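Re: that backbone. Tokens:
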């Protein structure tokens, strides 16, 4: 009888150690995964934002269509400007003036060769921009349009987002994700995921990850 009690108590102790270890390990493991996956999502959001800003610089509006955005990146160009001579070179400037020329030269540069610098994206990476990492080809939610400001000025706006539920492991970390979403939504009144921009007004395409 005494031996049976000892065995039972031993099993209880082992069980308690397992529960305590799980309680400690699970939040740490979740935080590590959250940091890793957030970082990969942010990399794509930044690339999409760079493309949207370039698209707006040429067409005076954003696009809510990934096909159009990807085609723009792969096939379009941007008009750039550069100075022909150094502004401090008075002799060269005088020659330009005498020739009736301005100290500015315009040229075209492929979108893909300029907007991601210093990164270099391949065609495959550009075509993959639409998909949220760690998902089965789920696309980022992309919206674009125009809003009228208080001074009755119409401005283009864009918003691109990825909900936590899309790219985090909702099976392994179900309760952690529920707590994370509740904290973001109910305590901070923020979007439960990562995003840039806003359809409610211009915020300079700010990202909610801190930049």
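Recovered sequence:
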């Amino acid at each position: 009888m005494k031996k049976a009690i000892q065995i039972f108590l031993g099993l209880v102790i082992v069980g308690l150690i397992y529960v305590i270890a799980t309680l400690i390990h699970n939040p740490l493991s979740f935080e590590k995964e959250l940091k890793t996956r957030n970082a990969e999502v942010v990399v794509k959001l930044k690339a999409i934002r760079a493309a949207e800003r370039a698209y707006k610089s040429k067409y005076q509006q954003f696009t809510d269509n990934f096909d159009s955005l990807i085609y723009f990146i792969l096939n379009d160009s941007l008009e750039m400007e550069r100075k022909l001579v150094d502004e401090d070179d008075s002799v060269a400037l005088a020659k330009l003036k005498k020739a009736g020329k301005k100290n500015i030269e315009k040229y075209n540069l492929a979108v893909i060769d300029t907007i991601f610098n210093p990164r270099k994206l391949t065609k495959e990476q550009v075509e993959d921009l639409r998909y949220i990492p760690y998902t089965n080809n789920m696309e980022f939610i992309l919206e674009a349009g125009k809003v009228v400001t208080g001074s009755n000025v119409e401005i283009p706006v864009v918003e691109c987002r990825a909900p936590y539920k899309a790219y985090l492991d909702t099976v392994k970390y179900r309760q952690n994700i529920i707590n994370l979403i509740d904290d973001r939504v109910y305590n901070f009144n923020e979007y439960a995921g990562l995003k840039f921009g806003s359809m409610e007004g211009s915020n300079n395409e700010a990202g909610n990850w801190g930049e």
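Residues 29-197 form one domain. Helices lie at 2-59, 66-75, 90-98, 123-127, 164-167, 174-187.
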